[in-house]
Structures are given as structure tokens and as C-alpha cells.
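Example 9 (inverse folding). The structure is encoded as follows.
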């Protein structure tokens, strides 16, 4: 398998090397994907990715042999050794015209595509877990509330990492434009601020749910924190990395209406489930933002991305100190 090239894993006798324009994933977003990190030939969080394969295939009524697929994925991980495997599963082409598909075994058939990318995903710091695994810990950065919103979804689609990602595409475009403006401003003034790493997104109901490419966790203070950018941005996470997750009460926004239930989000929830402070699922509202004391984003590739500050829509900045 050539680096960064797509191959068709299923059907196994497929001869195509390029995606058909009739592919339902391209035409209708009829499918899902998952992105897996690989270190030393092993897929990180493999059990969680397997759970995603099984649950998403069931939700979208796709006939997927997850065990056989996992065997192939492990083989490609061994060949890759270090990097990223991206898997896309779509419903197979249908003779039915339009959105519909045949309500039988043929209608549940799928295509499975894989891309292997040899890139480094390790970091200098990591958080040890009780089972011997480690979660990467990124350097502290800043975040900003975005005006873009993500869609509220019907129950069968909530939480799925489906191919319907246009709202995230537009939000990511907004974030990239903000980053460019920030770099230009720093160049003109000669000041360097913590880099903007992520944008916090609301759904159409007004609840803050996730980042453009990640899930979010937060802590609250009892008294309101000053909505000012004058407080120092502390980035001293190194000394607190060993207990970053286990100190204080973490909350995760509810995903009852929108968002993607990420692999790393579930890893963290499961990790803290037996601790003194299990994660509490709690909606994140506008009124909560000035009272945040900690905030981090996470995904399966980058691990935990702690934030030193969050800029609100009105321009105020809430800063966070190291635990």
C-alpha cells in the first residue's frame, strides 16, 4: 500500500482504485469514518474504534464484518508502524434512484476504503492511565468561541461520526480565518500570544457542544471569574501532568441533540468512572462560560489539548491557571 493512497478493503474482490462518482458517501454522506493512530504497529484505542464500527454500522443499517475488518486493519497497522489509518465506510451503489436504498441484504452492503499516512503522532508529554496506556498531552494553547453552529440531529444520527460534516467544514474555515488574522496582528505588533488551537462550537439550540475537530471537557468555579484578558496565561502544565485528569470535577457537554461522541471522550469518561470525581454530563450554556476554571479539547490522535484561555463571542477572555 503506497503512503497516503486510498485502497478498497471491501468488497475484497474489488478492482477499483478510485472512488466512483456514484458512491453514496460522496453523493449523500451515506456512511461514516474513523481515524486511528498507530504507534509501533499497534492501533491506539482499538477496542473503542471497534465499538464505533459496530455501533455505526448498526445505526446506519450497514452490513459490516467488523472482525474481518479488524484483522485487515491490524495488518496495515503493522506495515505502517507509525502514523494514521483513516477508514471510510459507505453504503454500496444502489439501483434505486435518489436517496432511497433497497430494504434488503443488498441495501445493507457497503464499501470500505482505507488510507495509510506515515506521520508522527507522539508528544513530549503524556498522562498515564491505570491500564498502562498513555494519553498524549499537548502544550497549552488558546481557544475561541466561534459564531458557526452545528446542526441538531434526529436521535438515530446523534453522536455518529458520519460523513455529513459540512457544518464542521464551515466552522473550521471560520477558525482558520481567525488564525490568519491573529498571526498578522502579532507580526504587526511584535507580540506573541498562545496559539489558537481550537474553536468552541454551539449547536442550533444554543448549547456549546464541541470543537471543530474534537470533544471538550470543562471545570467550573463557584464564584464568577473575571472576564478579562489581564490575568496571566499560565502554561505550567508539565508539573501537573500526572494528575491533570484526576484533580477537580470535570464536566462534558451533553450530546443528546448534536455532536460526535469521540473515541478519546469515551476513554476519558471510562477512565474517570471509578475515580472520586467521575465525569458529569452537563450542558454548557452561555452563562457558564465566564465561570469556567479549566477547559481542554481532546481527540484520538492528539490526545488532550489543555487551554490557557477562551475568548468569548463578545471579545472578553477567560483565562485558566494550571491545576
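The amino acid assigned to each position is listed next.
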Amino acid at each position: 500500500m503506497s503512503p497516503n493512497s486510498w485502497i478498497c478493503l471491501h468488497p475484497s474482490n474489488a478492482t477499483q482504485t478510485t472512488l466512483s462518482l456514484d458512491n453514496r458517501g460522496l453523493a449523500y454522506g451515506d456512511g461514516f469514518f474513523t481515524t486511528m493512530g498507530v504507534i509501533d504497529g499497534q492501533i491506539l484505542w482499538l477496542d473503542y474504534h471497534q465499538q464505533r464500527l459496530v455501533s455505526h454500522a448498526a445505526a446506519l443499517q450497514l452490513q459490516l464484518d467488523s472482525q474481518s475488518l479488524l484483522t485487515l486493519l491490524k495488518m496495515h497497522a503493522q506495515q505502517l508502524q507509525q502514523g494514521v489509518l483513516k477508514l471510510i465506510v459507505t453504503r454500496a451503489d444502489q439501483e434505486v434512484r435518489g436517496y432511497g436504498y433497497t430494504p434488503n441484504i443488498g441495501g445493507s452492503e457497503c464499501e470500505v476504503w482505507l488510507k495509510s499516512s506515515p506521520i508522527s503522532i507522539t508528544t513530549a508529554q503524556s498522562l498515564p492511565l491505570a491500564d498502562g496506556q498513555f494519553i498524549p498531552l499537548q502544550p497549552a494553547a488558546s481557544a475561541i468561541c466561534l459564531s458557526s453552529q452545528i446542526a441538531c440531529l434526529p436521535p438515530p444520527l446523534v453522536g455518529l461520526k458520519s460523513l455529513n460534516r459540512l457544518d464542521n467544514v464551515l466552522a473550521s474555515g471560520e477558525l482558520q480565518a481567525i488564525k490568519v488574522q491573529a498571526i498578522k496582528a502579532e507580526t504587526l505588533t511584535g507580540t506573541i500570544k498562545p496559539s489558537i488551537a481550537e474553536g468552541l462550537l454551539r449547536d442550533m439550540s444554543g448549547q456549546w457542544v464541541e470543537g471543530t475537530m474534537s470533544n471538550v471537557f470543562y471545570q467550573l468555579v463557584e464564584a464568577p471569574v473575571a472576564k478579562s484578558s489581564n490575568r496571566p496565561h499560565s502554561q505550567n502544565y508539565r508539573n501537573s501532568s500526572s494528575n491533570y485528569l484526576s484533580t477537580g470535577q470535570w464536566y462534558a457537554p451533553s450530546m443528546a441533540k448534536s455532536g460526535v461522541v469521540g473515541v478519546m471522550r469515551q476513554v476519558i469518561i471510562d477512565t474517570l468512572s471509578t475515580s472520586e470525581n467521575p465525569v458529569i454530563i452537563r450542558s454548557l450554556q452561555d452563562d457558564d462560560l465566564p465561570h469556567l476554571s479549566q477547559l481542554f479539547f481532546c481527540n484520538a490522535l492528539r490526545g488532550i489539548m489543555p487551554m490557557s484561555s477562551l475568548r468569548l463571542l463578545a471579545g472578553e477572555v477567560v483565562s485558566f491557571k494550571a491545576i
